[in-house]
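Hey, quick one: can you model this chain's 3D structure?
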Amino acid sequence: MEHAPLTVRISILEKYIQSRKQNIIKNSDEKSKFISNITDLVKSLNTIHINSIKDLESTVQKFTDSTDKIWLKHLKMVNITRYLKLWWNDNCWKHLDLYRNSKQLEDWKTFKKIVKTTKREFFDEKIQEILNRKKGLCDLINWVKKCKLPAIKAIKYNGRPYLEIEDLWQALYESFNTAQNWQVDTSILK
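Sure thing. Here's the predicted structure for all 190 residues.
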């Protein structure tokens, strides 16, 4: 049995709840075309005749108008739902439509394989993005729950870790007292 989700707009207390957004889907043909068109636009900019602020403003306005037209040409309206799948792409749609038209088991298997591969590639890319950006396993686990280590687990003084609060305060006290009369080079602050 097939079913289709319905999206309904209901006004609540005179407030508009956005249920659609404009977007260019990541890793889609539309994104590639958009980037190609913007690149061509930048290459075609004529900056030779900019001799005044008025000429510059005119050129910038033409560039802005052209960029807006290119954006509107390639964007896609997306329904915002709690089931929105960021990993879903044109290839998934293509194979889903193929299965819906044929109703063949082989097309269903191909569709499921494409979905599985697409999801894996998407989440592998997200994992790499997090690891490369923040370089921490706790940031990756952040998807599931917060992972905060107590600060005292990371503090070492005289080669040994301080895991108890009393030891930590003693280490901080000793550190402060040993550095209290040291000369400070303030020239590095300028």
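One thing worth noting: Helices lie at 29-44, 53-74, 90-102, 105-134, 137-141, 165-179.
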